[in-house]
């Protein structure tokens, strides 16, 4: 016993020494190597990261991620790569790197084999131009054998752990948004090997996913247990064991993903087999989950889908997607339902080759349920294609909507009525080819009732009988009847009766009468608190044929009646604010829709219209109709700035292009976007128009909106105290760019006032600051607007003549320098009255044709080139008495602020033109001084440039 006791004590002694040694080393190692590790990590980060990295403090310890020795960085912030240097790519409370002890102690090297990141936010972003913010890692250049032997920091990962992450991925070209909150991830394996198995455990508390602004997942819980074989040489990921759970729905994945030079190669299969309807419904949006908790859900479901093929945007290649959903013997019933929804069966197949909507195939082999005897529904629908869709459908059912409401246990919606439907269709639907499937069917609703929790009163007495018939598969035999469609709301009956025949040349007979309070009816369907108001009163009788209007047979039309709108608010996808139609009285007279009284406001701007629209019937009938009309428009004030697409406003229903442009250019105003479906002439009269601080008074002239462009013809306006005549054309290219042509004629233009009030004058005629008096001009220009609707000067082309009718010119530096060198003080105050100056603009250069003026007894003649940035390449010939026949040549180079002269020389120094890309609206290169060349070469190039500039002026056509 004594020996055993000694052995135990001896063992405990050595164990204690060993433990104490380990603890001692755990304390001492961080003290021995802090400089080595901190310095190596900094060097590694600086060499490998292109984005700015910042953090508060570092720690070297065994105890944060025991038993690993880790270097930890607190409050890390990593900014994105160009052009996102000011945006956060990653922020984290802690980032820790596990250090390989063996290499540290024996080799003095820092080898990182573990990564830990806690409480982090990652913002991964690809903008509309395809530029990404995550390109911050600088790849390691190839090294010689000598380099590879050097010591340093290296990464050979075996473990990655993320805790409590918020990841946001926004890919705007693909229109994908992923927002994952509460993400925890563990990845284990030989991550630095050429081929390794990555074991992944992933958990996300809340996952949101949208594609093209359609939410496919919101606030979903996700858990994944994955084993993925990764081949880093071939960049291939093989899905070996992949079990995923979205809320209560399990999914299993198999297949592989290979990364190609210009895309991906995919072969992925997924299945959720032998699950229940309740599991399937758990992946629906959150608003349906509360309903599911209180609802009896029984039945089996299966889901299969696959994605196979290559994805490459440059080669326009996309994979094939297929899916199948099966629901068998389903039962849905609320606790209060007298009759459940029984025998719910769904068999849906989706075939989506190349992700091409034109090849999309939907095969709903069965959708059926019943709500007791004589209360059943069955639908079989098969389609192929989109713009030319092959349709085979059979829909039949008789449903008591109140029974359906009670069976489903709908909380926010109360519906009643007897609905009966029987529709059969077989054939091709094509708007372009005017084909419609052979169809025979009807939908009948009697004594309908609709009430929501958003509004206390229902829409009641809804009665609808709609029939549709097509006998030969063309538009010409298609007939649709609504006889009748009527309902009561707030004590006001609404009645619509319609008989539509031959959609190839539509024969229509429509009667509509009633009063609608759209503010209140909107509340029936929408959330409370939204500011929607307005009243519509209709008493219309429309009777005619489509071709009567298009062929001018207006006497055969019998369209009459009135439509009165009051206090209506309306938004469009391309304007930041809301239009407020205070009053609109419309009268239909055969082919015309008259605006008898129309008054609207938009922000600070106001409009009143009198006139008519043509083609209103065609506009609502045709696939791509165009509204035509002629109006007189009056306005007290128009503020153009508030029509710019990216300005702040109350419109939340913007187009995705505007939404992305605004997010990526928060400080830009955008340009004005013109409707593409209008062909309207306007006699415009506006007392005041304001544009970017420029005041325009008493505007009067003819305007037109056509093909997405605005035209001004013989428009007269007051600007900077002068009467101006303008012809112009404007067209937007995107929310951020536009192009324009303009021709301007103005007499009695006060130079100093124009220089002070008009920014473009200060840019185009910088020397105008030294000129006072009255000028006249005729000028043509075309060019582009930038994202703040300022002209892009290198895009400008054109030219014209400025007549210095009654001016005084003093102290122009270029002339003063010449005067100082030739001993003629009169150059400081030359006589330029009545002189015509002709110039041509192209590539940010202004080419000046020869013009002559007086300086005492001298007759100087000026010609040459200057740039918007002030570079000079001017030839001045000083004509000597008696008649200026003998001239002294003087070359002026340098800049307008610091001119340089050479007397008795004709050889200046040319200016290389700016390079501008009209497709992308980018200035590739600004103008700059040319290399020194012979006088002959310079004169040849100058003549070529001037010829191109003059030709550009001739091509300017604002109409």
UniProtKB/TrEMBL annotation:
Disordered: region residues: 923-959
GO BP: regulation of protein targeting to membrane
Listed transmembrane segments: 12-33
Keywords noted in UniProt: Membrane, Transmembrane, Transmembrane helix
InterPro entries associated with the record: AsmA-related
Any one annotated GO CC term: plasma membrane
Entry annotated with the keyword Disulfide bond: no
Name of the protein this chain belongs to: AsmA protein
